[in-house]
Amino acid sequence: MGEYVSNVIKIMSEYWDVFLITGVGYTLLLSAITVALGAVLGMVFCLGRMSRIAPLRWLVIAIVEVVRGTPMLLQLYVGYFLVPQLLPFPVSDFFSISVALIVNSAAYLSEVFRSGIQAVDPGQTEAARSLGLSAGQTMVKIIIPQATKNILPALGNEFITIIKETSLASTFFVGELMTSYLKVKGATYLTMECLFIVGALYFLLTFVLSKLLNAFERRLKEND
Fold first, then answer.
1. What is the pLDDT of residue 197?
2. Average pLDDT rounded to a whole number, residues 178-190
3. What are the tens digits of pLDDT across the range 139-170?
4. Which class is domain 2-223?
5. CA–CA–CA angle 146, 150, 154 (5° rounding)
6. Domain map of the chain by residue range?
């Protein structure tokens, strides 16, 4: 046990920058990009699914169901190989993986947005339309602002979930925590020690963020 602990300390003293700067940095960056752009695309999916234009509605439903019905690792492989072929300019592996993660996050967030919008009192829509607002103006000015408050906690949970799911991106060596583990393990041949460090870092990230999210939810309830 003493040797195990000393190996962990030795690894952290020599490779702290690989884990803390590169690994944690890329994990948070990838997660933030995924949730931010996934929220934007998710709202587009949500509005498309609620559209009265049948072809658009069925297209969005098909995309969401395919994404939700297939493994994320499969989607990462598709993004890794397909995105560079679709674009006329070269892109990095990080970009391709980010696109796949964004589409995955958008599919799930679209359902969160839809439930948040549907939770708004229908009387709000009727009142807005009676005042002369169009359907688009009612959605942008009345419905979405009220729905946003309901879905903010879910966005926080999505961010925490994505932090853990970025570990699958290590298959493509994009630099996040599990990639750091593979690099350090290859240099030290100390598998369990490296896994312990990475596991502890994932736990710390998700634990701190979950506590911040809980505090934010309590603040929202106090303001109601």
1. 94
2. 92
3. 777 777 777 777 878 888 889 999 999 999 88
4. mainly alpha
5. 140
6. 2-223
